[in-house]
């Protein structure tokens, strides 16, 4: 009994000493930064600017873009990167964007699920959303436009797949010349836009 009385105060004192040191340090050897913005798990948050710089750096290395183009919206999707790197003209970029809008709208009308392309501004003309329910006149117009565009590309079937992969599915092209030929054929064709 006597030994128990002498041991208990030592244990309490030692535990209090350990708790006092733990409040000053987050890990052994490192003091916790004061006024650091923290995530719910207690780790310091990284600034968002570093994330944007890291993405821009990766775009520059992987896609060969300039620093300005890597930070712009054009660097975020394959068609924009091709235009930013001068591998396609501005006109072909516009044609590719128009194709993506037409293809997406046609798929919506026909009940075909397509990915939401990053090259499309998802607000239509006059601020009207592209997701609105079509009227019968628009259905006829979209179907006619799609058939004219397919007819313009009928000379080479893989071209349609390439244009869809780059403009609609946001995949990088294997062969830019095939994409250029298809977009040029669409630009020469009238009545589909």
Describe this structure in words.
With 193 residues, the chain is mostly helical. It is 59% helix and 3% strand. The chain has a two-stranded antiparallel ribbon.
Structural class by secondary-structure content? mainly alpha
Low-confidence parts, pLDDT < 50 over ≥5 residues?
none
Shape: elongated
SSE string, helices as H and strands as E: HEEHHHHHHH
Q: Indicate the percent of residues in helices.
A: 55-70%
Mean pLDDT: 75
Tally of DSSP β-strands: 2
Strand content: under 5%
Please sum up the structure shown.
The protein has helices spanning 2-24, 48-63, 67-71, 78-84, 90-110, 136-152, 157-168, 176-188; strands spanning 25-27, 30-31. With 193 residues, it is mainly α. It has a domain at 88-188.
What's the structural blueprint in terms of helices and strands?
Blueprint: H1 2-24, E1 25-27, E2 30-31, H2 48-63, H3 67-71, H4 78-84, H5 90-110, H6 136-152, H7 157-168, H8 176-188
Antiparallel strand pairs: 1-2
Helix pairs in contact: 4-5, 5-6, 5-7, 5-8, 7-8
Task: Please name the defining characteristics of this protein.
193 residues; mainly alpha; two-stranded antiparallel ribbon; 8 helices; elongated
């Amino acid at each position: 009994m006597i030994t128990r009385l002498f041991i208990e105060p030592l244990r309490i004192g030692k535990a209090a000493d350990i708790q006092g040191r733990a409040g000053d340090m987050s890990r052994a050897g490192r003091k916790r930064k004061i006024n650091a913005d923290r995530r719910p798990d207690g780790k310091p948050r990284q600034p968002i600017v570093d994330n944007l710089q890291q993405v821009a750096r990766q775009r520059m290395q992987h896609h060969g873009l300039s620093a300005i183009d890597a930070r712009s919206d054009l660097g975020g999707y394959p068609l924009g990167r091709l235009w930013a790197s001068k591998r396609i003209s501005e006109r072909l970029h516009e044609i590719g964007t128009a194709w993506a809008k037409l293809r997406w709208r046609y798929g919506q009308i026909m009940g075909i699920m397509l990915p939401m392309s990053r090259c499309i501004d998802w607000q239509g003309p006059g601020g009207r959303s592209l997701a609105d329910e079509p009227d019968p006149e628009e259905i006829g117009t979209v179907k006619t436009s799609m058939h004219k565009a397919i007819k313009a590309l009928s000379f080479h079937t893989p071209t349609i797949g390439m244009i869809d992969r780059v403009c609609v599915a946001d995949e990088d092209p294997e062969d830019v010349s095939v994409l250029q030929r298809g977009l040029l054929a669409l630009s020469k064709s009238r009545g589909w836009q």
